[in-house]
Specification:
alpha/beta, 18% strand, single chain, 7-stranded antiparallel β-sheet
């Protein structure tokens, strides 16, 4: 297609394209825009190497003129201008996430890569935001999806954009290194299964935190196991000795970060063993940091575990013991979180993998990239499906707010129209309502797009990843409850001005 533009002499025609999606994902009312920083990185580096040109020569028809390849050697993004919503912003269908202006051939060549960089990023960030909204602000969310992600690139992207969407940690150490995301992990079943008895624990001793002679932690844990089992009225022989050995070994290695995975054999073995080792550590001045469940009725088990932890806290006079964090994993979904809430669970940390990174409820956001203007003339794609029609012309986009500070409408106007003002009555045509006019008087007006790329360079200081994450949470919090709720939300109105509506009608009539 690029060769076609070049042969027709249209390759340098000034053009504009927009990147947007047609429907909100997951049957919700919003999405989070993401992928901007990666898109800008791509634009800065965009050019064809000698190896690229050689490959293109090998796959294009032999009739392709040499002069076209000479031209490709000069192509870059130096004449491209990109405006965008800030990364992490709440966005809605039909509203451009990105606007790209430049020579027609270059604008066209950027399409696929920009779609690739924005589509998945925005989808995962939105999916993560939904988990965060369900979990509430207090529960910690950990992304653990690397093993289930679509390859290493998908795994890294999922870690990055789930953090933007509101997750607190990732188990992906490379993502922590590259992006500064806090990393967390837990002990695995395999570690516990590798031990069969306390005789295998080496070393066995641990010095008290305050100093002094090292103590045989294995023997100390055994003595505490007797006391814990007496409290729980459970025979000590029901506690698996290999599991106890694994916990002791792990505690000696990580005395400040000891946590127990309770269900390798059964929770009524894992819980007494964990409590015994955690109380032994406490006697030496250390604090265990948590337990994890990976099977069974997680909500119900969390309540039973909390009851036991509180009983130990009271009986053994260890005040912090009753509030040890309880973490869960095991194919966690939105429905799982809703169940935890309904049950009144005692869960503090939730690890989400497959249902976060693969987005099984909707595997693609469906972003598209469409021309809206060429050579100063607006473009229109006509179709029998109204939602697949494009909105012509280069546009400015505004978010209108009510008195409570909630967004009430996104309004698209032609670039040369005066900006709407707070308190001014506006006539707008909401998309999907067959062109009917509505009046709105916003309390505040926010221009949505900023220019991020011009003359081959990023021209706006980009926020850090934590700043993008914070912006996303602020943007979500501004939504009205009717638009923010995840089940049967109220559709958010996206509208065009009277002038843009008339242009759309005029072009539609002219092309029919």
């Amino acid at each position: 297609m690029a060769y076609g533009y070049w042969r027709a002499g249209r390759h340098r025609a000034p053009a504009a394209a927009e990147l947007f999606f047609r429907r909100e994902p997951f049957h919700g009312a919003f999405a989070l825009g993401a992928g901007l920083a990666e898109g800008l990185r791509f634009l800065r580096a965009f050019r064809f190497s000698a190896a690229d040109i050689a490959y293109l020569r090998s796959v294009l028809p032999s009739t392709t003129e040499d002069a076209f390849f000479d031209y490709l050697c000069t192509v870059d993004a130096s004449e491209v201008t990109v405006s965008s919503v800030p990364e992490g912003s709440v966005v809605f269908s039909r509203v451009p996430l990105l606007q790209v202006k430049g020579p027609l051939l270059v604008v066209q060549l950027l399409e696929t890569t920009l779609l690739c960089l924005v589509n998945y990023a925005s989808l995962v960030a939105t999916n993560a935001a939904r988990f965060r909204l369900l979990a509430g602000p207090e529960v910690k969310l950990m992304e653990i999806g690397l093993r289930r992600a679509q390859g290493p690139d998908g795994g890294l992207s999922a870690s990055k954009y789930s953090y933007i969407g509101g997750f607190d940690f990732t188990s992906n150490v490379l993502a922590g290194k590259l992006y500064g995301i806090p990393v967390r992990g837990t002990i695995a079943h395999s570690f516990i299964m590798s031990f069969t008895s306390l005789a295998e624990v080496q070393p066995r001793v641990l010095p008290p935190l305050a100093g002094g002679e090292p103590v045989d932690l294995a023997a100390l844990a055994e003595s505490w196991l007797q006391r814990v089992c007496e409290l729980l009225q459970s025979p000590p022989e029901k506690a698996n000795q290999g599991e106890l050995a694994a916990f002791v070994s792990y505690a000696i290695t990580f005395p400040h970060n000891f946590q127990g995975l309770l269900d390798t054999y059964c929770v009524m073995s894992g819980l007494p063993n964990f409590c015994a080792v955690a109380l032994a550590l406490q006697q030496l001045g250390y604090r265990a940091i948590g337990v994890r469940l990976d099977s069974g009725d997680l909500g119900q088990q969390s309540k039973e575990i909390r009851r036991v932890l509180r009983a130990c806290s009271t009986t053994f006079q260890v005040p912090w013991f009753g509030s040890i964090p309880i973490a869960v994993s095991n194919d966690i979904s939105e429905r799982s979180l809703e169940s935890f809430i309904q049950e009144g669970s005692e869960i503090d940390v939730i690890g989400v993998g497959t249902n976060l990174v693969t987005c099984p409820l909707q595997p693609s956001l469906g972003c598209v990239y469409k021309l809206v203007e060429v050579n100063g003339s607006p473009c229109l794609k006509l179709t029998e499906e109204e939602e697949k029609m494009t909105i012509p012309g280069i546009k400015a986009v505004y978010r209108l707010y009510d008195d409570a500070g909630h967004p009430v409408m996104d309004l698209m106007a032609l670039e040369d129209e005066p900006a709407p003002k707070a308190g001014q009555e506006l006539v707008a045509h909401v998309l999907g309502r067959r062109g009917e006019a509505t009046k709105v008087r916003p309390s505040a007006v926010e221009p949505l797009h900023r220019t991020y790329f011009r003359d081959g360079q990023v021209c706006e200081v980009l926020p850090s990843l934590p700043e993008v994450r914070s912006h996303a949470q602020t943007s979500l919090s501004q939504l009205s409850p009717a638009h923010r709720r995840l089940r049967e939300p109220q559709p958010y109105p996206v509208a065009v001005t009277e002038k843009l509506h008339l242009l759309l009608a005029e072009l539609r009539q002219a092309r029919q």
